[in-house]
UniProtKB/TrEMBL annotation:
Organism this protein belongs to: Scomber scombrus (Atlantic mackerel)
Protein name: Myelin-associated glycoprotein-like
Transmembrane segments: 253-275
Chain ranges of the Ig-like domain: 150-241
InterPro entries per the UniProt record, alphabetical: Ig-like_dom, Ig-like_dom_sf, Ig-like_fold
Origin: domain of life: Eukaryota
Record bears the keyword Membrane: yes
Keywords: Membrane, Signal, Transmembrane, Transmembrane helix
Signal sequence interval, chain numbering: 1-23
Length: 307
């Protein structure tokens, strides 16, 4: 009797511990539709919830499979159990213990369109019970296959003014945040470039690069190119022609006027100097003529007296 009582107490305790796991509601949140660039990569955002806030990672196993075909696995921790076409192409980025089931797929093929669903298994011992397996077949992802990489978008200010800072932004959207597209410019240094990466909505991200530089006269009618380099080697570019408005100045008026005025002043000064010199010379000559005339007059008077 005592042993039966102990066994019953043990079963009740086990039921109390296990009941939240078995009776709790499992839900998954997966991006429904994602663009997938052929030869590149895609990250599928995924999370799941349960009555227990945090489950032990060691007791959880995450599996991704094709739609309702649970045995056609595209991800499993045991690579030998997945479809040969997906060997070394998928990896779990999320931490299952934190209810994160995010999956990365690389080297995208043009037939990898899906749909793909997530499945979680809760290991209770050496075996996995059927009630511990949950496939979220109502929350699967489909890929829209893209054969050409997205083109960057350039956002310039309205006008470039000579001698003033000019800022131009290049941005491109993608679905692979684990391998962010590299944005490069046809000009500029690292100090002139600012990069930002942000999520637009579930599964879609935006890489952004901002270039700021001081425009010069030589920049007028030059081309600026932004290149987006995607994982897998694909690239796309966007280009614009820069038109620089010259700074308003009146040098073409002021400089000739100053030169003209300066020349006139110098010429007037020379004229005044020459006039003064000429007058002084005339005065000297007149003075000398007066002296000679006086001498002749005195000499003439002397001769009259002696006569």
């Amino acid at each position: 009797m005592e042993n039966e009582r102990k066994m019953m107490m043990f079963c009740l305790l086990l039921a109390a511990i296990s009941s939240p796991v078995f009776t709790g509601e499992w839900k998954a949140s997966v991006a429904k539709n994602l663009d997938a660039l052929v030869t590149s990569c895609v990250v599928i955002p995924c999370s799941f919830t349960h009555a227990i806030n945090e489950l032990p990672h060691s007791r959880l196993r995450g599996i991704w499979h094709r739609s309702t075909e649970k045995e056609q696995r595209i991800y499993h921790e045991d690579q030998t159990t997945i479809l040969e076409n997906f060997h070394s192409r998928t990896r779990l980025l999320g931490n299952l213990g934190q209810c994160n089931c995010t999956l990365e797929m690389i080297e995208i093929k043009d037939h990898d369109n899906g749909p793909y669903c997530f499945r979680v298994e809760l290991i209770t011992g050496t075996e996995t019970s059927k009630t511990d397996k949950f496939s979220f077949v109502d929350s699967c992802v489909n890929f829209k296959m893209i054969t050409e990489p997205p083109k960057p978008t350039l956002i310039p200010p309205k006008t470039a003014v000579q001698g003033h800072p000019y800022t131009i932004t290049c941005l491109v959207r993608h679905t692979c945040p684990s391998h962010i597209p590299q944005l490069t410019w046809s000009r500029g240094t690292a100090e002139e470039i600012l990069e930002v990466h942000r999520e637009i909505h579930q599964g879609t991200w935006e890489a952004q690069s901002t270039l700021t530089f001081i425009t010069e006269e030589k920049d007028d009618h030059t081309d600026i190119t932004c290149t987006a380099g995607f994982f897998g080697g694909r690239t796309s570019t966007e280009q614009l022609t820069l038109y620089v408005k010259r700074t308003e100045n009146y040098n073409h008026i002021i400089i000739p006027a100053v030169v003209g005025i300066g020349t006139a002043v110098i010429f007037a000064g020379l004229c005044i100097f020459m006039m003064k010199k000429y007058k002084n010379r005339i005065a000297e000559l007149q003075s000398q003529e007066g002296t000679v005339w006086n001498r002749l007059s005195r000499l003439s008077r002397r001769r009259e007296v002696s006569t």
